Each structure stands twice: as structure tokens, then as C-alpha cells.
Amino acid sequence: MEISEIKQSLTLAQALSHYGLKPDKHARLHCPFHGDKTPSLQVYYKAQSCYCFSLNCKTYGKALTAPLL
Fold first, then answer.
1. What contacts 24+ positions apart, CB below 8 Å, involve 18-25?
2. Residue 34 pLDDT > 90, yes or no?
3. Integer Cα distance of 40 and 57 in angstroms
4. 62: left (phi over 0), alpha (psi -120 to 50) or beta
5. The pLDDT of residue 67
6. Local confidence band at 69 (pLDDT 50, 70, 90 cut-offs)
7. Other CB atoms closer than 10 Å to residue 31's CB: what's the count?
8. CATH code reported for the domain at 3-68
9. CB atoms within 10 A of CB 57
10. How confident is the model at residue 30 (pLDDT cuts 50, 70, 90)?
């Protein structure tokens, strides 16, 4: 199995768990891509993506999916 195939088979929940990221009860967490005092990364399990709403984040404006994490 190729690495790209393994990445494609991962769910968002599995990818977050691998990195030790645990969303709160509203599916938000502190963004790992920038300094964050309050949770700014929203996790969308149905869409298998997440989005950081902070303008200070290099990922702002891009939806992140499990293979990209």
C-alpha cells in the first residue's frame, strides 16, 4: 500500500487523534498552525474537513481535509 493510499483511507477523526488534537463539545480546537488563545479551528466531521477562522493563520481561507493534515 502506498502512503497516498493510506492517507486517503484516514478519517478526519483518526488524523486529529494521531496528532493528539481533541476538539471540544462544539467541534472546535486551538489551531495547531498558529498561536491561539481561543479555539479558532472548526471541525466538520460530516464533510471530513476543518477550517481555521483566524486571519493570523497561514491556512486561513482554505478548508483542510484529513489527507492534508
1. 19/69
2. yes
3. 10
4. beta
5. 62
6. low
7. 24
8. 3.90.580.10
9. 19
10. very high
DSSP secondary structure string for all residues of 3-69: HHHHHHH--HHHHHHHTT----TTSEE--TTS--SS--EEEETTTTEEEE--TT-TTTT--EEGGG-
Query: What pTM value is reported for the model?
Result: 0.80
Q: Which cell goes with 29?
A: 480546537
From residue 63, alpha-carbon distances to 1, 2, 11, 58 in Å are 27, 24, 15, 12
Mean pLDDT in residue range 30-47: 94
- Tell me the Cα Rg of the chain: 12
Number of other CB atoms surrounding residue 43 within 10 Å: 21
